[in-house]
Design brief:
Blueprint: H1 8-37, H2 42-56, E1 61-68, E2 73-80, E3 91-93, H3 99-106, E4 110-112, H4 125-129, E5 134-140, E6 148-154, H5 162-223, H6 227-253, E7 259-260, H7 261-273, E8 279-285, E9 290-291, H8 293-314, E10 321-330, E11 333-340, H9 357-369, E12 372-377, E13 382-389
Parallel strand pairs: 8-10
Antiparallel strand pairs: 1-2, 1-6, 2-3, 4-5, 5-6, 7-9, 10-11, 11-13, 12-13
Length: 399
C-alpha cells in the first residue's frame, strides 16, 4: 500500500482549478475576438470586454478607461461591479503617479497586489471608496494614439501574476484593434459624407447652370423675329432642360451609380406637357427600374425628340392632342413606347432615312445605347418603340 500525502488532494484541486481558469481565459479571448470582428456596436463591445475580463480573472471589478488629453484624466467608459453613477462620470488621474496613468504613458503593465502598502503610486480615490485591495492596468493602444487603459480590480486577498497580466494584455490587444477599427470607420464615414456633400453641391450647381442656359434660350425663342429660328431655339431649350433634370435627380438621389429612370423621364414628360404646346402627355412606368445616369440622359433625349415631333406633326390642328409614354422592363432590357392618335406617319416613312434633326438625334443616340428603334402605323396615329439594354453592350475586340 502507498500512503497518500495529506495535502495531495488540495494541491490537485488547485491545479485543476487553475487549468480550468486558463482554458476559460482562452475561450474568452476567442469570444472577444469574434465579437470584435462581427462589428458589435462599440459601447456593447466595451461592456462585454469588461464583463468577460473580470470573469476570466475571477475579479469583482473591471473598467475601461478612456484618456481625455485636454483634462489629463481617464474617465470610466464601461465597467462591471461599480456603484451606480460611476460609469460615464468617474475619472482618475492620467499622470505617472497614477497606476493607470503610468500604464498609459509608458505602455508597461502595472500590478499592485497590496494597494494599502503601495509606495510607487497613489491609490485613486475611486478604488479606496470601493475597498479595492489589488489591481492590474494595461494600455489600450491600437494603431494611433492610445485610447486609454483596461483595468481589473479585486477586493479579495491574493495576488495577480504574470499569467494574469498575459490574459489582460490579450484582452486589451483585441479591444485596441476594435477601437482602431472604429476610429478608421469614423474617419472613413466623415470622408464619405464630405464627398457626398460635394457631389450634391456639384450636381446642384450643374442643374442651376443648365436651367439658366435653357431659360435664356427660351427667352430668345420668344423674342426672335424669325419663327423658324425661334422654334429651333425652343427645342434646344427643351434638350438642355432634359439634361438639367438628370442633375436635379442626382443631387436628390445621393448616388451617381444608378437613378430611378421612371421618375426622371416622368419629369421630362411633365416639362414637355407644360411647355405651351397643344399636347397632353400621359406617362406610365414600371417601378424600380434603375439606370446609369449617362445612359439615362441618352434615353431622355430620345423621348424628348419623339414627343416633341409628335406634338409638332401628329396634331397640326390647334386642338389638344394626346401622347402616351410607357416604360417597362423586359428581362435585361427596358422597353419604351411613345404613341399618339394623330394624323399618322407620312407615306414611305423610314426611320433610317429620316432627315429631320429630331429623328437624326433619336437614331444616333439609340445607336450609342445599343438600342433598337422601330416605328409602327396605328389607327389612328403612329407609335415608336425603343428597346434599350440595361447595361451597355460590350465593346468589340479589336483585331
Amino acid at each position: 500500500m502507498v500512503e497518500t500525502a495529506p495535502d495531495a488532494q488540495p494541491s490537485s484541486n488547485l491545479a485543476e482549478r487553475a487549468l480550468h481558469q486558463r482554458i476559460r481565459q482562452q475561450e474568452i479571448l476567442a469570444e472577444l475576438g469574434v465579437s470584435a470582428l462581427q462589428g458589435t456596436p462599440f459601447p456593447v463591445l466595451l461592456n462585454d470586454a469588461a464583463r468577460l475580463t473580470a470573469e476570466g480573472l475571477r475579479a469583482e471589478f473591471c473598467k475601461v478607461l478612456e484618456h481625455l488629453p485636454s483634462e489629463n484624466r481617464l474617465i470610466v467608459r464601461a465597467g462591471v461591479g461599480w456603484d451606480e453613477g460611476v460609469i460615464g462620470t468617474a475619472s482618475v488621474g492620467a499622470d505617472l503617479e497614477s497606476p493607470a496613468g503610468f500604464a498609459l504613458h509608458t505602455g508597461k503593465p502595472v500590478i499592485s497586489n497590496h494597494l494599502e502598502n503601495e509606495q510607487r503610486f497613489r491609490t485613486p480615490e475611486l478604488l479606496v471608496q470601493h475597498g479595492i485591495h489589488r489591481a492590474m492596468n494595461v494600455i489600450l493602444q491600437g494603431d494611433g494614439l492610445p485610447f486609454g487603459v483596461l483595468e481589473v480590480d479585486s477586493r479579495a486577498e491574493g495576488e495577480f501574476g504574470d499569467q494574469d497580466i498575459a490574459f489582460l494584455q490579450g484582452a486589451a490587444n483585441i479591444l485596441g484593434m476594435a477601437i482602431e477599427r472604429q476610429r478608421y470607420e469614423r474617419r472613413l464615414k466623415a470622408a464619405l459624407d464630405h464627398q457626398q456633400i460635394l457631389l450634391k453641391e456639384i450636381n446642384h450647381r450643374a442643374k442651376n447652370s443648365l436651367q439658366l442656359v435653357a431659360s435664356m434660350l427660351d427667352l430668345q425663342a420668344r423674342i426672335v423675329a424669325d419663327p423658324t429660328l425661334g422654334g429651333h431655339l425652343a427645342e434646344a431649350s427643351k434638350r438642355i432642360s432634359a439634361v438639367g433634370r438628370l442633375y436635379e435627380h442626382l443631387s436628390h438621389d445621393g448616388t451617381v451609380e444608378k437613378i430611378d429612370l421612371g421618375a426622371y423621364i416622368q419629369e421630362i414628360c411633365k416639362d414637355l406637357g407644360a411647355s405651351g404646346s397643344n399636347c397632353e402627355v400621359h406617362f406610365e412606368a414600371e417601378n424600380g427600374i434603375r439606370f446609369a445616369p449617362d445612359r439615362a440622359i441618352h434615353l431622355a433625349l430620345i423621348v424628348n425628340e419623339l414627343v416633341t415631333n409628335a406634338c409638332k406633326y401628329a396634331y397640326p390642328e390647334p386642338s389638344v392632342g394626346h401622347i402616351w409614354v410607357n416604360i417597362r422592363r423586359e428581362a435585361d432590357a427596358v422597353s419604351v413606347s411613345i404613341r399618339d392618335a394623330g394624323v399618322g406617319l407620312p407615306a414611305g416613312f423610314e426611320i433610317a432615312k429620316a432627315k429631320g434633326l429630331g429623328m437624326l438625334i433619336a437614331t444616333t443616340l439609340a445607336a450609342q445605347l445599343g438600342a433598337s428603334l422601330t416605328s409602327t402605323r396605328q389607327n389612328p396615329g403612329a407609335g415608336f418603340a425603343l428597346l434599350v439594354p440595361l447595361e451597355p453592350p460590350a465593346p468589340l475586340d479589336s483585331a
